[in-house]
Design a protein that fits this description.
This protein has 191 residues and is an alpha+beta fold. Helix content is 27%, strand content 29%. The strands form 3 sheets. It has a 4-stranded antiparallel beta sheet with strand order 4-5-6-7, with helices on one face. The chain has a 4-stranded mixed beta sheet with strand order 10-9-8-11, with helices on one face. It is elongated, with a radius of gyration of 22 Å.
Length: 191
């Protein structure tokens, strides 16, 4: 049986499938809502933030502003006003991103896929995985390398989860390789 309910306020419809002794809510991850065991016993799930926000010094913005001013002077010297506009836009984005609060993500690893927030990655789209550990990092990172797409790597902080359990669950999906932080990851953490 299926139950269909529409809301006039949010213009959305909720569909609940009612099965024998189980109610499966398709708006979120697969959970049994009557208090019994989960549908997938092999699911490893936890909640984390999308990135670790570094603590900024009081005058952290001086270095990006100095770089922006040098680039703006170069743009004035070469009379490239479009370049000046792009530098100002980039500096504004750096300022806005520094004050942005990281989103909370729910991570799930099953025998067939990895779910990072709302993005589900089937096992056949994973090229490899690695767990990055560095003295500069507060927590280790789960690094996923995808076979195709624009963003071919995903990094997830492993906060309050056993990295060995994550490693064991990921080995069932794809091969483990040594992953390192990219230069943009290091620069984003430093600045």
């Amino acid at each position: 049986r299926a139950y269909h309910e529409c809301s006039h306020y949010s213009n959305t419809c909720d569909i609940l499938f009612i099965m024998t002794n189980h109610t499966l809510d398709l708006r979120s991850s697969a959970k049994v809502t009557n208090g019994q065991t989960p549908l997938h016993d092999d699911t490893l799930s936890w909640t984390t933030i999308e990135y670790e926000k570094p603590s900024l010094r009081r005058n952290w913005w001086l270095i990006p502003m100095a770089v922006a001013l040098i680039l703006i002077l170069f743009g004035i010297f070469t009379q490239n006003y479009f370049f000046i506009a792009l530098v100002i836009l980039a500096f504004g984005m750096v300022l806005l991103n520094a004050h942005r609060t990281p989103k909370t993500l729910k991570i799930e690893i099953t025998s067939q896929m990895v779910r990072v927030g709302t993005h589900a990655i089937p096992g056949n789209e994973l090229d490899s995985f690695g767990i990055i550990e560095s003295p500069d990092l507060i927590h280790p990172l789960l690094s996923l390398s995808l076979t195709h797409g624009i963003n071919r790597s995903i990094r997830v902080p492993l906060i309050e989860v056993d990295k060995e359990r994550v490693r064991q669950a990921m080995r069932e999906l794809t091969k483990e390789e040594v992953h390192t932080e990219t230069l943009t990851d290091v620069l984003a953490r430093k600045f």
